Amino acid sequence: MKTRGPGLWLAAGALLAGCLVLGIWIGGVRLSPGAVWSGAGPEGQTARLVASIRVPRVALAALVGACLALAGAALQALLKNPLADPFLLGTSGGAATGAALASLLGVSPLLSPGAAFAGAVVSSIGVAALARRGGRLDLQRLLLGGLIANAFFSAILLGVFSLASSETARTMLFWMMGSLADASPRKLLALLPYAAIGAIALLASASRLNLFSVGEENAAALGVDTERSKTVVFLASSLLTGAAVAFVGVIGFVGLLVPHAARAVAGNDQRTLLPLSALSGAALLVAADAVSRAVAAPSELPIGAVTAAIGAPVFVYLLLRTP
Amino acid sequence: MALAAQPFRVSGRALRATALVAAALAAASCGRQDVAAAVGKPTAGPATRIVALAPNLTEIVFALGAGASLVGVSDFSDFPEAARSLPRVGGLEVSAERVASLTPDLVLATAEGGNRKGAVSALEASGVPVLVVPGGSLDEVLTGIDLVGRRLGRTAEGDRLTRSLRERREAVRRSVGSRPRPRAILLVWPDPPSAAGGGTFLNDVLTEAGAENLLSARTGWPVLSAEWLATAPIEVAVLPDSPGNRPVFERAFSTGALSRGTIRAARVVRLDESALTRPGPRVFDALEQLARGLSR
Predict the structure, then answer these.
(1) Of residues A308 and B60, more confidently modeled
(2) Does the first or last residue of chain A, that is N or C, have fewer Cβ atoms within 10 Å of its Cβ?
(3) pLDDT reported for residue A109
(4) Contacts of the segment B18-23: beta carbons below 8 A, 24+ positions apart
C-alpha cells in the first residue's frame, strides 16, 4: 500500500481548502474578501450580495462532489470493477427520468427533486431485482441491469423532450447538463440528511469492502454477510447519487474519476480510499464550478460539461499509466 | 415495371425494395419542379394552399388577408382567433407526412429556430415548395412580410402592411428621441434566465423602444448567472407575459435567480408574450407598448 498517515490527510485537506477559497473568490464577479468582510458602502453591499449567492453554491458543490465520489468509490470496490459508476448502473438515469416526467405532468418544480429521488430508488430496486438470482446479488447481472435501465430511461427522456414545450425542454436540458446555479441554503440543508445517511452507511462498510477485494467467497469465509453488505452499499450509493441528481442534475465523471485518482495516490484500502475520495470529489466539483462560472461570464458553462472536459483527459492519462 | 416482368421469381420484399430505389432515383433525376408538376401541384401563380410552420408565419398570412388559403398551421398558432380551428401539423418537430397530406402548394418555414432542418428538408426533397422566411431583426421581419406577400400574389397588401409598420416604427423612433435610455434586459425565459442578446429581433425592439440593452455585446440568447443578474446595473427588466409563463417568472422572482440584487429592484415591464416573441406584424405592437412603458 502507498502513502498514508497524516501527510496524506493534510494534503487532501489543503487541496479542498484551496479549492474552496478559489471557488469563493473567482466567478462572473470578482469578489474582494475585504469588501465582503467590511460590507461598507455600495461596493461592500454588492460584495456581500455576491457572497450570499456564491457561498451556498460553493458549499453545495462540495457536498455534491463528495456524494458522487463516495458513491463511485464504494461501487468500484463492491463490483471490483474500475468502470463502475452510479451513472453506469442506471441510478442517475432513473433520477433524471423521474424529474423529467414530473415536469411534463406539470408537477411543481419544487417537488421535482422528490420525483428524481423516487426515480433513482425505483431504478436501484429494479436493477437490484434484476441482478438477484436465488437470493444472491449477481454482479455481472447488476452491470447488465444498469445498462438496460440506462437505455430504457434515455428512451423515456427523449420522448419527454420531444413532447415538452420549447421552454420546458430548455429548463430540462439545462438541468440534465447539471447546474448549481440555483443553490441556496435551503437546498443545502435539504440535501444534507441524504448525504449524511449515505456517507455514514458507506464509511461504516469500508472494512467489509476491503474483504470483498479478496473475492466474494473468501469474504464470506472470513465471516462477512456478503449479501447484506452488497445491499447496504448498493442502496447507500443510490441514495447519494439520487439525491445529488435530484438537486443539481446530471454531473458525470466525478464518481468515476475521483476514486481512480485517489487509488493512484493512496492505494486500495477502502478505509482510506472512501474518505479521501469524498474530500477530493468535493475539491474537484468546487474547482469545476468555479471554472464554469468564470470562463463565460455573465453566462455559465454547464458543470457537467466542465467535469467531462477535465475528467476525460485525466482518465485517459490514468488509463495509459496503469500497467 | 420491367423488374416485375422478369420470368424468374423475385421475393416480394426484394421487389418492393428495388421499386423504392428505382422511384427514388427517378425522383432524384427530375428537378424539384417536375416532381411538383407530376403530382398535380401548380408551380406558378399565387399559392392557394398554404401551410405555416410557425405562429408568426400564420399571423403574417392572416395580416395579408390570405387566412382563407391556410390549410395547416403549427401547434402554437393561436392568433388570430380563426387560426385556432385550422388543422395542426406539429410543434417544434413538425410532421412532414402531415404537411404533405394537406397537399400544400406553399410551405412557410421560419429561418429562426429549428424549422430549417428535419421535416423541412424532407418536404423540400419531396418537391413541396418551401419558402424560408427571415425574422432575425425588425428589418428582416418587414422583408419577410414583403416576401410572403409576393408569393401569395398580394404584393399590394404586403406593401400597404409594411408601409404602415414602417411608419409606426418611425413614430416610435421619433417619440424616443433623445430621451435618457434606461439600462435594460429582455428576459425571454427565467429558468435558466435567458435574455435577448445582440443580433436578435428583440434586441432591435428593446433598443428602438428607447432602452440600452445591457447584453447587446453578446449575440443570440445568453443564459445569465444569478451573480450577474444581482449585480449588473439593470434598471428595467422586460418580460414576456402569458398565463403559462407568469407562475414560472413569479417563482424566479420570489426564490430563484431573479430574487436578489439589482434584478429584483429593477422596474418590470410586462408585454404580451405572443406579440413580443414572434417576429411577425404584432411585434410592432410590442415595440409601441414597450416605448410607452419605458417613457413612464
Answers:
(1) B60
(2) C
(3) 57
(4) none
Task: Tell me how close the Cα of B41 comes to any Cα of chain A, in angstroms.
Answer: 32
Which DSSP symbol is given to B71? Answer: E
pLDDT band at residue B24 under the 50/70/90 scheme: very low
C-alpha cell at A263: 487509488
Angle, CA A60 vertex, CA A59 and CA A63 arms, to 5° = 90
- Cα–Cα distance for residue pair B98/B71, rounded to 1 Å: 11
Out of B92, B189, B192, name the one closest to residue A181 (CB): B192
Residue with cell 420525483: A115
Residues ≥6 apart with Cβ < 8 Å to A292: A300, A301, A302, A303, A305, A306
Which ipTM did the prediction report? Answer: 0.75
A240 neighbors A199 (Cβ within 8 angstroms):
yes
**CA-based angle B245:B246:B249, to the nearest 5?**
85
| Residue B90 at interface with chain A, using a CB cutoff of 8 Å | no
* Helix, strand, coil percent content, chain A, rounded in steps of 5: 80, 0, 20
User: Chain A contact for B261, CB < 8 A?
Assistant: yes
* A48-107 per-position pLDDT tens digit: 888 888 899 999 999 999 999 999 999 888 877 776 777 777 888 898 888 788 877 877
State pTM to two decimals.
Answer: 0.78
